[in-house]
TrEMBL record:
It is an enzyme of class 6 (ligase). Keywords: Membrane, Transmembrane, Transmembrane helix. The keyword Metal-binding does not apply. Residues 158-221 form the AMP-dependent synthetase/ligase domain. It holds the Pfam family AMP-binding. This is acetate--CoA ligase. One of its GO terms (biological process) is acetyl-CoA biosynthetic process. Its EC number is 6.2.1.1. One of its GO terms (molecular function) is acetate-CoA ligase activity. Belongs to the ATP-dependent AMP-binding enzyme family.
Amino acid sequence: MNKLLTITEPDNIKKLPSVYFPSDKASRTAHIGSMKQYDELYRESLLEPETFWLKYALKYYWATPPPKNSILRYNFDIRKGKISVEWFAGGKTNMCFNALDRHMQNNSQKIAFYWEGNYPGDRKSITYESLLHKVWFINSAQYLTSLFSPVKISDLRAVCHFGQSLRYLGISKGDRVAIYMPMVLEAIIAMLACARIGAVHSVIFGGYSADSLAQRIIDAE
């Protein structure tokens, strides 16, 4: 005979709130301290998108700043041509520089990345300086004196490390690099090294079969 099992919650079980609010201290130190401030920024991004995005884009490093009239271009109407979206057309920057180098002057010893593994205690952290050295090993003293001034890669007197190792293998700007690695700190180093030299990286899930892996490598072209 089938019986219907009914599960009820005891009255003494503490129910957790569905919404968590930040502490006053966290709100004061956050980039966006309240929902009101968030709503104001969101409204600004809708009403004046080019002004809004240019204002925040210019907080980052640009070798060539984007022209004011090319912040955002798009076409979603197939009748008017190819579907396309362009951000900051004409601008030139380096994502690795923005992620690491611009923090070297004041925050070189701060933690740039926390890594948590699958097991308790399986964790690592790395500073901006250490991460930069693993991505693109440099002469620190010479580098710091030239930071934020117009320099070329050759001026940094870089010695062989991950980014330089890619170059040694013949990888250059525009080449595709497939990153077939587990979720480890070294995967971040590989991605940043690709960005450093202008290579396009494609992160591939480590559990794919050989056929699936091959297809994604081909698709990267």
